[in-house]
Description:
The protein is an alpha/beta fold. The chain has 2 domains: 6-151, DNA polymerase, domain 1 (Orthogonal Bundle); 160-274, CATH 2.40.50.140. Helix content is 31%, strand content 20%. It contains 10 helices and 9 strands. The protein has helices spanning 6-15, 52-64, 70-77, 81-89, 100-108, 124-131, 141-151, 160-164, 222-227, 229-234; strands spanning 20-21, 33-34, 40-41, 185-196, 205-210, 215-220, 237-247, 250-260, 272-274. Strands 4-5-6-8-7 form a 5-stranded mixed β-barrel. Strands 1-3-2 form a 3-stranded mixed beta sheet. A hairpin with an 8-residue loop joins β4 (185-196) and β5.
Amino acid sequence: MGFYAPATVVQDAKKHGIAVRPVCAARSDWETRVESDGSLRLGLSLVQGLTASQAARLLQERTRKPFASLDDLKSRSSLGPEALRALASIGALNAWATDRRSALWQTERPLRQEDLGGGLPDGGVVDRLEGSASPLKPMSPEERLVADYATLRLTTGPHPMALRRSTLKNVWQSAQLQEAPDGARIRVAGQVICRQRPGTAKGVCFLSLEDETGITNAIVSPELFEIERLRISTEPFLLVEGIVQRRHGTIHVRALHLERLPDHHLQTSASHDFA
């Protein structure tokens, strides 16, 4: 998807009013594409745990005849357990299920007694599993977010910062910085999408922090960078306290203090870092 990670491109598209549709085994192609209504449909190539050959088989069978059910997809696509779990966990099988956990339940349940090598004498347990709905509760928004990042490294749902906003006290959103006076001491936070420390900057590090409203640029002095080198280099989410600087129409935050934000085990895309 270009210079920035797909997650950043998706968030930017949404900010510009472009609808981004999730991966769907009934509609997605291998690559992300523009649909007839102008929306973006994410492609199967983004799914960790689904190989190109598996996706090709799924698309071939879908073209030959649309899948009538999840069992039909399982039977004709010959996808293995890992690929089915990956698709179910991100909602890509929801065309044949009420929610993600229902799809996961269907991918894991025994299909037929003969699949178990003879199975049980009366088939009772297997029959009950086949005919029952999922006993699991639907995923919460936080669980869906974790599942999306684990398998896609992005989400079409709320930005990770939107779900933690209520826990952040006195932290400015990126969009609010237009109202911040020059010289004010504020706190900002976000997902680190870019780290730059060019040789011409004499040791200064530039951070780009993305939240649900936009991108904030923070400047880290050489002295603070040396103190916080490990945190800056490895943490996917940071909270920065610093001084607002307005220069030539741009707004930066000169960092005075940095903190780690819990990432809730999100497996984010690598940021674009330059020395």
